[in-house]
Amino acid sequence: MVKNGEFFLIKDMKQRGMTINQISNELGRDRKTIRKWLKESEAKIYKRKPSSRCILDPFKTYIRQRMQEGCLNAIVLLDEIKEQGYSGGITTLRLFMNPIRPTVVSKATERFETPPGKQSPSRLGNIPG
C-alpha cells in the first residue's frame, strides 16, 4: 500500500521526466506498483472493512452466563451451544473464552515432602504388622 505522500511523490517524479525504473529504484518499490499508482487519478483513502457478524454472536450472552456460574470447560460449553444450533468449532469458542476466564490464583494441589517411612501403610494402621 502506497501512502498519500508517496502517491504525490510518484506523480511528481514522473512529471519531472523520471522513468518507472528510476522511480522504483529511488523509492524502493516494485515497478508494477509504481505503474499501478501512475494509472490512478487520485490517492485512495484506506478504509477498514466493516466487521462482519461472528458465528458465535447469538451465543455470547449464554456463554458469559455459564462462565459466571463456574463452567469454564470449553468442550462442555461447545456441546451445550451445539444443541442450541451453533455450527462453528471449538477454536472460535476458546478464543472468545480466553480473555473472560478468571486467572488462577493458586495451584490446585501443593506438593509436600515427608521423611522416608512416615506415610507407610504399616504406620497408618491399615496393615497389621
Give the mean pLDDT.
84
Instruction: State the order of secondary-structure elements, H for helix, E for strand.
Output: HHHHHHH
Please report which band the strand proportion falls in: under 5%, 5-15%, 15-25%, 25-35%, 35-45% or over 45%.
Answer: under 5%
- How many strand segments? 0
Q: Which geometry do the CA atoms define?
A: elongated
Taking the alpha carbons of the first and last residues, their distance comes to 83 Å
Q: Helix content range of the residues, please? A: 40-55%
The major beta sheet can be summarized as: none
Number of helices: 7
Structural class: mainly alpha
Low-confidence parts lasting 5 or more residues at pLDDT below 50?
Answer: none
Rg over CA atoms, rounded to whole Å, is 32 Å
Descriptive overview:
- The protein is mainly α.
- The chain contains seven helices and no strands.
- It has helices at 4-15, 20-27, 31-39, 60-68, 74-83, 90-97, 121-124.
Q: What attributes does this structure have?
A:
129 residues; mainly alpha; 0% strand; elongated
How does the SSE layout of this entry go?
Elements: H1 4-15, H2 20-27, H3 31-39, H4 60-68, H5 74-83, H6 90-97, H7 121-124
Briefly say what this structure is:
The protein is an all-alpha fold.
